[in-house]
From TrEMBL:
Keyword Transferase: yes
Binding residues annotated for NAD(+), in chain numbering: Q87, N88, I89, D90, G171, T172, S173, N197, L198, V199, A215
Gene designation: cobB
Organism expressing this protein natively: Raineyella antarctica
Family that this chain belongs to: Belongs to the sirtuin family. Class III subfamily.
Record-given protein name: NAD-dependent protein deacylase
Protein function: NAD-dependent lysine deacetylase and desuccinylase that specifically removes acetyl and succinyl groups on target proteins. Modulates the activities of several proteins which are inactive in their acylated form.
Annotated Deacetylase sirtuin-type domain residues: 1-224
Reaction equations catalysed: N(6)-succinyl-L-lysyl-[protein] + NAD(+) + H2O = 2''-O-succinyl-ADP-D-ribose + nicotinamide + L-lysyl-[protein]; N(6)-acetyl-L-lysyl-[protein] + NAD(+) + H2O = 2''-O-acetyl-ADP-D-ribose + nicotinamide + L-lysyl-[protein]
One protein family per Pfam: SIR2
InterPro entries: DHS-like_NAD/FAD-binding_dom, NAD-dep_sirtuin_deacylases, Sirtuin, Sirtuin_cat_small_dom_sf, Sirtuin_class_III, Ssirtuin_cat_dom
EC number from the UniProt entry: 2.3.1.286
Active site: H105 (proton acceptor)
Length: 224
């Protein structure tokens, strides 16, 4: 059985990583446009670098939870061909053991060089303008996808979504495209579609089934 699981910030919430929207959200104190666009970075790179440096440090102190582990188990189950497509820039899926994984909005643990295009692994801060290990220029930014930029590996994702037998959306508000369109795409191609979310998204729903609850409860109970 071919399965695609799309994950969002909600899957990492119980690990202690803030979600973006809603009460207590990561962006409650920041306007999205202040930190998550290339224009904001051009205007005030230091604020944006600090924002991501803070998140990179925070993610290093947290661990994958039962939902990440359940998806890693699902990948290893006989007869299952699973692709996890995450919008998250943390590395909790891979730390739980998931191997078939796409980070469509990039990764905190990589930087991207605006001079040479290199994408070096990165664990430290970027605010102090360290040199790129590939070309030596001080032009590194976080390797994440901001509004107006093209998400990663879209061809691979769309191929998997169109071919899957089941599509599950876990812990995402479904407001950011193109990810927000994948459930409807999967359904149009004949897949069974599910949403697993603490607070299910509003109608009209492209989902055949909705399981409401925290990811650490609903994901293991779906997988096992
Ligand atoms: C729990 C839980 C628990 C909580 N258990 N659940 C008009 C129409 C269509 C598109 C556009 C449009 N105008 C502009 C666009 C394009 C734009 C877009 O979508 N804008 C919308 C806002 C309208 N998109 C883009 O620009 C994208 N690029 C693009 O479109 O390129 C062109 C293109 C053309 C053709 C084809 C394909 C592409 C790029 C989008 C980049 C998004 N980047 C960010 C930042 C990444 C770096 C970073 O992390 O800082 O990605 S924005 C932010 O939102 C981040 C997230 O990945 C993304 C989604 O958020 P997510 O994960 O859903 O989090 P929340 O907080 O919103 O929701 C949390 C959910 O968890 C909630 O549902 C809770 O209930 C739940 N939850 N606790 C289970 N314990």
């Amino acid at each position: 059985m071919r399965i695609v699981v799309l994950t969002g910030a909600g899957i990492s919430e119980e690990s202690g990583v803030a979600t973006f929207r809603g009460a207590g959200g990561l962006w409650e104190g920041h306007r999205v446009e202040d930190v998550a666009t290339p224009e904001a970075f051009d205007l005030d790179p230091e604020t944006v670098q600090r924002f991501y440096d803070t998140r990179r440090r925070a993610v290093a102190t947290v661990s994958p939870n039962a939902a990440h582990h359940a998806l890693a188990r699902l990948e290893r189950a006989p007869g299952i061909d699973l692709l996890v497509v995450t919008q998250n820039i943390d590395d909790l899926h891979e730390r739980a053991g998931t191997r078939q994984l796409v980070h469509m909005h990039g990764e905190l643990r990589r930087a991207r060089c605006l001079a040479c295009g290199g994408q070096p692994e990165w664990t430290g801060d970027l605010v102090d303008r360290p040199p790129c290990p590939v070309c030596g220029q001080r032009m590194l930014r976080p390797d994440v996808v901001w509004f107006g930029e093209m998400p990663y590996e879209l061809d691979r994702i769309e191929e998997a979504v169109e071919a899957c037998d089941m599509f599950a959306s876990v812990g995402t508000s479904g407001v950011v495209y193109p990810a927000a369109g994948y459930a409807a795409m999967a359904k149009a191609f004949g897949a069974r579609t599910m949403e697993l979310n603490l607070v299910p998204t509003d109608a009209p729903l492209p989902f055949d089934e909705v399981r409401e609850g925290p990811a650490t409860v609903v994901v293991p109970s779906w997988v096992d």
